[in-house]
TrEMBL record:
This is MLO-like protein. The keyword Nucleotidyltransferase does not apply. Keywords: Calmodulin-binding, Membrane, Pathogenesis-related protein, Plant defense, Transmembrane, Transmembrane helix. GO terms for cellular component: membrane. The chain crosses the membrane at residues 17-38, 59-76, 152-175, 273-292, 298-316, 357-380, 400-421.
Length: 489
């Protein structure tokens, strides 16, 4: 295939200085990006931000996966172009209505679809014409054109980048919303523990007054309605934070009333952020389903865009209602309380007794929003706003507005609610330990494992004394572990 004649120029007829220059620019940009990630990782490690450092490693894994996907698409571009199918197969589940064909044997339906969507013909990548001619000689059409493969792999890259950026913005917005909580934590730490030991009736506490106003059955319905609307304004008050903080401390670390709950909560949120920025297998499966449903005339995307928004409203209402249920459970006892009000965390408040399910739903919502926004801008740049694949302008704008509102609501209300309410279960997260205690526990566990292996390996009557000594050492290590737990920061 020689240069000129309107066809793509192969590498053998391209000047070497052009090839070297383009490769140099790509390599330089890649090295600069890699060095930036490396220095960012070192800075996070120096700042003892291990969860965020692990998040950065997760991002690198996603970039590696994207690179591998891009490589596969480029390598398989030629072979897939030579996969020939019957033209009738290309008539079903089209995102755009194809233009009328003049001849059954002279027009490639796949290329006509993209040409109609863009308002004109587009030049195929290198090898696209050969694949088309190869299939046309057989009276068939190629399964996927070279241009379609190229645009698909650009969309996947845009989707992954959009998902990461929007997730990061949402988490940073959520953390910013919790800044007031840090001031509340500081005031609680400065407060004398024994200063407020006066006896008060349960109905005198503002936390109870805000969330519970009677024992009538209709209050359950009113409580759900109040929880729905409260997520839009002041989702967590000072009284909410104080009550849930004390409930967590009394359940999991009662020996340390000065436990810094806010620091633990932020560390746990940073760990969860690592899960949110990743694209798991079920999200890839969701992407495939969304691509299949983009059929002309179905208008499925306008309804799908409402699903994450509705899920977000339901999740926010549920988290707010958990706070109400905590107050309801205490108020039912209807007795005087000495000192501060203590709530009782439990997994029973969560769906299927699984607090982790809330994070999964938030993860799905963020990915769906990223898909909507990435798909809109990708179509806008690739085909234009008036293209048929974009759909009706009113529908397209509505989908983007809903996705943006969902993103803002998640960062403003839902994520801060999750940050504190997710700890109202039976268990606590491993981020309750700071880095020093975590490293000490890991060393202790490794030593205990080695001693246990030694006991099993020397299981003989003559070694009973040594075995007893090792067991006493394990008991001492357990005592040291309890002492270390008491000084959690």
């Amino acid at each position: 295939m020689a240069g000129g004649g309107g066809k793509a120029r192969p590498l053998e007829f391209t000047p070497t200085w052009i090839v070297a220059s383009v490769c140099s620019i790509i390599v330089i940009i890649s090295l600069i990006f890699e060095r930036l990630l490396h220095h960012l990782g070192k800075r996070l490690m120096r700042s003892r931000k291990k969860p965020l450092y692990e998040t950065l490693l997760k991002v690198k894994e996603e970039l590696m996966l994207l690179g591998f996907i891009s490589l596969l698409l480029n390598v398989l571009q030629g072979p897939m172009g030579r996969w020939c199918v019957n033209p009738d197969i290309m008539r079903h589940l089209l995102p755009c209505k194809p233009p009328p064909r003049a001849s059954r044997d002279t027009e490639h339906l796949g290329d006509a679809l993209f040409a109609g969507a863009m308002g004109g013909a587009r030049r195929l990548l290198a090898g696209g014409d050969d694949s088309e001619d190869y299939c046309m000689q057989k009276g068939k059409v190629s399964l996927l054109s070279a241009e379609a493969i190229h645009e698909l792999h650009i969309f996947i890259f845009v989707l992954a980048v959009t998902h990461f950026v929007l997730s990061a913005i949402t988490v940073l917005l959520g953390i910013a919303q919790t800044r007031n909580w840090q001031h509340w934590e500081t005031k609680i730490q400065e407060k004398d523990v024994d200063a407020s030991q006066m006896i008060k009736h349960v109905q005198e506490f503002k936390f109870i007054q805000d969330h519970f106003r009677g024992h009538r059955k209709r209050w359950k319905t009113v409580g759900w309605m109040r929880s729905f609307f409260k997520q839009f304004y002041g989702s967590v008050t000072k009284e909410d934070y104080t009550a849930m903080r004390l409930g967590f401390i009394m359940k999991h670390c009662s020996g340390n009333p000065k436990f810094r709950f806010y620091n633990y909560m932020i560390r746990a949120l940073e760990v969860d952020f690592r899960k949110v920025v990743g694209i798991s297998w079920y999200l890839w499966a969701m992407l495939m389903i969304l691509l299949v449903l983009n059929v002309q005339g179905w208008y499925v995307y306008i309804w799908i865009s409402l699903v994450p928004f509705i899920i977000l409203l339901v999740v926010g209402s549920k988290l707010e209602h958990i706070i109400t249920e905590l107050a309801y459970e205490v108020a039912q006892k209807n007795r005087p309380i000495q000192g501060d009000l203590v709530v009782a965390p439990s997994d029973d408040f969560f769906w299927f007794r699984q607090p982790k399910l809330v994070l999964l739903l938030i993860h799905i919502v963020l990915f769906q929003n990223a898909f909507e926004i990435a798909f809109f801008f990708w179509l806008l740049v690739t085909y234009g706003f008036k293209s048929c694949i974009m759909g009706k302008p009113a529908y397209a704008i509505t989908r983007v507005v809903i996705s943006v509102l969902s993103q803002l609501l998640c960062g403003y209300s839902t994520l801060p609610l999750y940050a504190i309410v997710s700890h109202m279960g039976n268990s606590f997260k491993k981020s309750i330990f700071d880095d020093n205690v975590t490293e000490g526990l890991a060393i202790w566990a490794e030593k205990a494992r080695r001693r246990r292996t030694t006991v099993y390996a020397t299981n003989s009557p003559t070694d009973e004394a040594n075995s007893g000594e090792i067991q006493m050492q394990n008991t001492r290590d357990t005592s040291l572990l309890e002492q270390g737990t008491a000084r959690i920061v």
